[in-house]
Structure formats: structure tokens, C-alpha cells
Amino acid sequence: MEDMIPACDAIDKAGYWSVECWGGATYDSCIRFLNEDPWERLRTFRKLLPNSRLQMLLRGQNLLGYRHYEDTVVDRFVERSAENGMDVFRVFDALNDIRNIRRALKAVLRTGKHAQGTICYTVSPLHTVDEFVDMAEQLMELGCDSICLKDMAALLKPQPAYDIVRGIKERCGEETRVHVHVHATTGVTMVSLMKAIEAGADCVDTSISSLSLGPGHNPTEALVEMLEGTPYSTSLDKDLLLKIKEHFAAVRPKYRHFESNILGVETEIFDSQIPGGMISNMESQLKQQGAAQRIKEVLAEVPRVRKDAGYPPLVTPSSQIVGTQAVFNVLMGRYQVLTGEFADLMLGYYGETAGTRDPQVIAKAARFAKKEVIRHRPADLLRPEWDNLRAQAIGLKGCNGSDEDVLTYAMFPQVAPKFFLSREEGPKSVAKDPAAAAPDNGTKPAPAAAPTPVRTAVKYDVTLDGKVHQITVTPA
Questions:
Q1: Please, how many CA atoms are within 13 Å of residue 34, restricted to the half-sphere of its CB?
Q2: Reduced to 3 states, what is the DSSP secondary structure of residue 215?
Q3: Contact, 174 vs 199, CB < 8 A?
């Protein structure tokens, strides 16, 4: 927070439609690495950004965790987030299964806050412009205030960007608010933003230039300049943008040791369809197994696993599930070892995929997990769990008994106990002196950490040749 607070005044006055500042992996990072209370962070932003809409990313029925939560927990999380200062909830599901989005959207609408229904963009033989427009129509029928086209892997090329936005406007009405979110990794998406704007997009996502590009977003200032001489304008204050840029240009070197090793343009992603952060995660897993040299085999395996799983979009948590299974397939033989998460994906416990899942892999998953295939909404299997979660959380030393603390425990039950114990010690900086983080004599690059959402170590019981083994997967 110490590196963000000084920029808040300029951000608040620059003219942004919203400031995405919470949700996703930021909550996890707060308690896992920074010893910061994520709810206090939200309240601080609310205080320091009085003129701005605060925005968050919410994984539908998964909330901010990596499993589905029972409906009343979803309701409680949304209520507390709104009460603590959140304005815009960008709600998505990794499989684009609207059944997994519906409850969270209804909860947002009850609070009177902005409910943004989200389409995860992906490319496959089954994903067409009409399919995405159909999903937008279904989301609007649920009462969404806006639609977001979310491209997490920088796969959205200019023509599909135009066609999808235009299709949504024509099908749902010109007054339908459409936001477009793209990453910069493949190098083409700044043009995609321009085409989306020409098609009628109302808002696009960018980040300040000193924190942009690579697997991040396109630079805000470049977008502002690109629109000069066109019928469109951002109305952003360029002087304030310069202040924000200079502030974060000074901050960034302190975190150089966390930089992604994807610095330039990666058009290969159009073939593999693998988000940059997912590549880093798989590299880390292979290094731990002494098999870093097999990364190309894994990159080739990911599209095959994705096809077998019914072409899910590769976004948290499906990207981690598919990526880890691809690593296992390369190291141990195709589907000789299954992770519990991949088995659940194959059996429908994350929801429905766009395509038909491979019957042979489904059969293996059923034998491994000792579960049946399901077709209904996964959360329908869950019993009310709030009282139990509350009892467990209150029993932890350092838990203050608030709903917010219970939700922190619910999201990250393996990380929260340690955080509750150390919270009173205050924030812990992971920044380093820029000189210490610089390459050694210009020859040895600083180590890069995966920029994917962090997770704790997970133990799986896997069956190989009829014998059960326990494997621990430790993501970066």
C-alpha cells in the first residue's frame, strides 16, 4: 500500500471510468506475502479515491478462491464487499457457464452496485461471434448493468473485436454498455481496442505505461494519443497521467525480482492459446521436477488437454487445472496420473464446457475420483456452510470475529490462520533495493516469478498402475 497511496490523488482526479483495485489475486497476495488485511486495503482505497468507482474481479461461484462456495457465502461476500466500498463487480466464470455467474450477479444487484456480466474470450472450433453475442444477451436478461468482453490471453484480434462488440450492440441495443478488457502479450490488441471502439465499445481497460505491456495491458497514454483526430476521446487529464506514470516508474524497479520473463511480443500464444502467466507457472513446476527442458512438450500438450476437456477458456482456475495436467501428462504419460481438480473438471464439477469432453478421459476421471458425471449446477450439491466456516474461523487465534475475517478464512483456509496470527505486526514489504534487484554485471538476469494468481501447495492422491500415490503440486 505504501507504493500505491501516493498516486491515489492523481488517479482519483485523472478521469477514469473506474479503478480496478481489488479481487482476483490481490486479496491472496495481501494475506500471503504482504501481511496486509485486504478489507482494510479496500477501505483505504475508498477513502483515498472518493470520486472514483472502485472495481473488482469476482470469479462467480468461486468468489476469490479456487472452489465453488455455497450460495449464502456468495451473498455474504458480495454484501460485505459493497459495504466496504466496492462499486463495480466484474463477474465471470472460467467456463462461461452462466449458471455459475447468476447468484453473484443477483447479489450485486441487491446491493444497488454495478453488476458487470463477463464473457471470457477464447478461440476454438466451437467459439464463434454468435456464441459470444448469445452469452451477452443471456447476461443482459439477468439484469446486468454492462457487459465485459474479457480477453485474458491477448487472443482477441481486431476483426473479432469489432464483430463481437457490434453484434452485442445490435442484438442487445445500442444503449448496452460494453467494456473490453485485453492483455498486450501478443502485440495486436491495441489495434483490437481501436476496432472495438469503432464498433461502439463504451470503455476499454489499460494500465499506466510504466506498468504496461508484456503480459500486462496496453498503455493508457498510448490509447489517449491514438484517439486524437478521431470522433472518440477518453477525456483523461494528460498532466495527471504523467504524474501517475512517473510515480510508478520509480516504484517498479523495487519489484524487479517479480518481473515476468515475457518482456516482448509473444505471437506464439495464438497457436498455444496459453496466457503468459500460465507459461511461467508451468515453467516453475517443471523446474521443481528437474525437467525445465521439457517446456516445449508441455506447451504442445496444453491444447490437446484443452480439447479433451471440452475447450474451456484458459483463465483462473481452468488455466492452472489444464496446465498442471499437461505437465503430468508429459512427465508421467498421458492421463496416467490425474489431479483431483482435472478429474472434477472432466466430470462437470466446475460446470459445463462449450464442447463435448473426451469419454475415455471422463471414464478415467470417474474411476480416479470415485464420482459420477453431473449435469446440474455444481453449487447445487453444496450444503449451507456459513455457520461452519464462522465457527472454524472464530476458533483461530487472531481472528476478530467479523464477517470479513470469516470470508478471508473461507477463501484461503490454509493461509488465513498464519495471517491472523501476524496481522498485528503490520505490513511486510517484499520490495528490494533497485540496485540489488538489477542484473549481475549485465549478464545474469534477475529471477522471474510467475505473475499468475498464487495458490498454496496442494496434495493429490493419484492412481498409477493401480497403486495410489500422493503428489504435492506447489505452484509458483
A1: 16
A2: coil
A3: no
pLDDT at 259 (0 to 100)? 81
d(CA 271, CA 442): 33
Give tens-digit pLDDT for 55-110. Answer: 999 999 999 988 899 999 999 999 999 999 999 999 999 999 999 999 999 999 99
d(CA 352, CA 347): 9
Q: Is 58 strand, coil or helix?
A: strand
Q: Report yes or no: 436 and 302 within 8 Å, Cβ to Cβ.
A: no
> What SS3 class is residue 459?
strand
326-335 LR contacts (CB < 8 Å, sep 24+): 326/282, 326/298, 326/301, 326/302, 327/282, 327/285, 327/286, 327/289, 327/298, 329/301, 329/305, 330/291, 330/294, 330/297, 330/298, 330/301, 331/289, 331/291, 331/294, 332/464, 335/361, 335/364
Q: Are the C-beta atoms of residues 197 and 206 closer than 8 Å to each other?
A: no
Helix (H) or strand (E) holding 180: strand 178-182
Residue with cell 504419460: 333
Q: Which residues contact 401 (CB under 8 A, 6 or more apart)?
A: 394
Look-up: residue for cell 508429459? 330
* pTM of the shown model: 0.87
- Amino acid (1-letter code) at residue 235: S
Give the Cα separation of 111 and 55 in Å (integer): 14
Contact 306, 326 (CB under 8 A): no
Q: Which residues pair with 469 in a beta bridge?
A: 462
